[in-house]
Amino acid sequence: MNTAIVISDTSEDHITGDGHPEQPKRVAAVINKLKKRDNLIWVKSEKFDHKILKKVHESNYVDNIENSFPTNGLKFLDGDTIISPGSKRATYDAVGSIIKAIDGVESEKFKNAFCAVRPPGHHCEKNKSMGFCIFNNAAIGAQYLIEKYNYNKIAIIDFDVHHGNGTQDIFYENKKVLYISIHQYPFYPGTGSENEKGKFNNIFNIPLPAGTSSKDYFDAYNHVLKKLDNFKPEFLIFSAGFDAHQDDPLAQFKLKSKDFYEITRRTLVTANKYLNKKIVSILEGGYDLNALAESAEEHIKALQQNN
Fold it and tell me: Residues 6 or more apart from 195 whose CB is under 8 A from it?
């Protein structure tokens, strides 16, 4: 079995306006890069039962989002998150991509999957859009694993340079989900200190300063692997942001494209002892198009070698 790339026909219809960093070209850059690779399975997102949204987000929030998309022009959900008429289908298709990926892994249609979709999700809390994020795709995927497949130990590893405050908020009191984030701190969104541990010690934050080098990052990443080893996950979700790259305009880490191969490889060496290689990854941040495409390809290389 091979690695699947889950895409949607609508990701590029989510228009955010001139100059906005979370732009349609992000997904196009990743897909164009990955199309040059052999032995990938290309899959399209599909519709899903929207009931899962209200298992993760508050009911009123889900209903409000449903009715918030404009019929023309642009609209601000918050100071950072802009939507347009095409955003509605793109938003639901992004959620649908991780559902499709999980079902494909569970039915053994492919070994693992990367969802090359937008908008991203990890800043979206139970009842609040934030930081370009409308629904929390990774969190919905984890809840879907609990609801449909009865998993009791799901690990979400978030290597986006920004802390995933939304994912932390959603699972802060859920012992079935281990959320690990390694991120720049202090920095947007202001959360992610090492004191935020969750009700069941199921939140593990590794805050690192601006200017963090590859060496310092991997020294710190050993703590991620130790936590993962102790948790013994049955399924792994990557919140795969590539904005820790040295060329990214929205942060100040100093990682190189090849480092994302190594992040992924090291994680899988540890996690494979427990989860039978059951892995789904979904795109979060990454705002320099070339760095994003290169880094995502390195991430996929490691996923492919895990087959």
Answer: none
Domain ranges of the chain: 3-305
pTM: 0.98
- Please state whether the peptide bond connecting residue 119 to the residue before it is cis, i.e. omega within 30 degrees of 0: yes
Of the candidates 123, 163, 245, 299, the residue annotated as catalytic is: 123
Nearest to 235 by CA among 115, 141, 137: 141
Q: Is 57 a catalytic residue?
A: no
Separation of alpha carbons 60 and 260, rounded Å: 38
- Predicted pLDDT at 307: 75
Please calculate the CA angle 201-207-213 and round it to the nearest 5 degrees: 140
* pLDDT higher than threshold 90 for residue 78: yes
> In CATH, which superfamily holds the domain spanning 3-305?
Histone deacetylase domain (3.40.800.20)
Q: Give the span between the Cα atoms of 31 and 104, in whole angstroms.
A: 20
